[in-house]
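Record pair follows.
FIRST:
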Amino acid sequence: MPLSSFLYRNIGDKMTFSERFKQLRKDNELTLSALASGLKLNIRTVKRYESGEIDPSITTLAVIAEYFNVNTDYLLGISDNRERR
């Protein structure tokens, strides 16, 4: 299944990537600007991730997971387990 299929699916109570990404930012009390700076991304890119307008690359997905100390399956909505392996 392509990565984009995982990014946009919403199965039952599982959240999409954009929802999880935005929730993690809010849970960590980060502004869009602070998150963009921390991830070394343009603020517009962060906004587009949160809106679901664009998908991160696999490399960027890994960087986001490391930044928030969660696993990529959690970010993609495949698992509710945040723990990194």
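SECOND:
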Amino acid sequence: MPKRQHFSEMTTSKLRQATREYDREYTGPGLPGKPLTAADRALHRKARGRPIVGKGAKIVPVSIERDLLAKADAFAQQHKLKRSEMVARGLKLVMTSQV
């Protein structure tokens, strides 16, 4: 089997012959594919963004002492939690305890 010549070493006519298959429109499986159906478009719209937990989320600016925030972030990272998840767990814990 002869060694294939690199594209940069081919003449224009050999390069044209070697790449002829890419001149035809691609009709096989995969992209470009059929247009999305309405159901598929709805599924893709629904999949965008963060997943909704409960009734969704609301951004709430809260002031926290810097040292406490640093300790909380370190704890969250160590336990593979997001800061918001840790705050939500803490709020639930406080609300369910007898304070």
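COMMENT: Residues 64-99 form one domain.
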